[in-house]
């Protein structure tokens, strides 16, 4: 056996340029959660209406990801990434200047259009920058920008909004967008060779394969389970666990650290066992969600399990993203990758909705984690079915699904 793998070569700088873009996009997606009261008061709308700014963004990602990916499919990928960061930057500038609620909602939706396609195209570019056995790790490094945004960008943005007004946060994210655009334009290499445009029919046919559709369903179910709990983590910590309000931000910081660890761990697992890592990570996530229901009233245990939830949730990201990339093949990997980002966001929205139903009709906050575990357990079942269906196809040459395009 060669000793080459043990040398563990460093990831290329271009990959960290994608991480910078992911950081900016992740910050703008989630930072609004810490600004809702200021936005509602300043624009004279209800808190519920302000909360729709989160739903509007998520739905914009879900709808925009496939449409924008198809629209830009014939363009060089680097040009697409730079263009998306320009859209992201201008969208945040429009948020900072928004004179009323309607303008802010429209600006949030415009900004969200860049999200799904950036991560979708970025994942394809990331896997093209590294050897075959490091593709999942490359995806996880790019997604580290999203997890760091949750850990650092969102709390910093919330503090900035509290001290200087919510608009200052969007001004700051606009600056991040400018910097990320420059970094990507400088470090990401131009597309090598000539890309032959793939007919839309072939792309759609590749995405409609059963294994790809099952992969998208896994993503929806996995993250629906996560957000069934995480959407309501603040009231759970306050009303059930009994923590002080000042302690909540510290617990969420623990969750953010867990996300970073889980994201990198999931990449390594998927590099070694792409199919097996799906069942393992989703299975551990389902067990952890169920366990939270047992420890919810213990402050020490709840802090620990919130961190473990971050690890388990984001350990699933690279395996699920790599699955759809591989199963869609060269013809559909960009569209499938973007659709999977939309699936993550659809899962977020469905999880928040399901958690709300449990609160109202099924016993309140103490039952939320049980519902979450059942949803994710369904995702485990889907993963098992998808892997069984894929077994007859193992005769294909290793790595054929991710071979570079001409």
Automatic annotation (TrEMBL):
The keyword Cell membrane applies. InterPro entries: MFS, MFS_dom, MFS_Efflux_Transporters, MFS_trans_sf. It holds the Pfam family MFS_1. Residues 14-391 form the Major facilitator superfamily (MFS) profile domain. This is DHA1 family inner membrane transport protein. It is a multi-pass membrane protein. The keyword Transcription regulation does not apply. Keywords: Cell membrane, Membrane, Transmembrane, Transmembrane helix. The chain crosses the membrane at residues 12-35, 47-68, 80-99, 105-129, 141-162, 168-189, 210-233, 245-266, 278-296, 302-325, 337-362, 368-387.
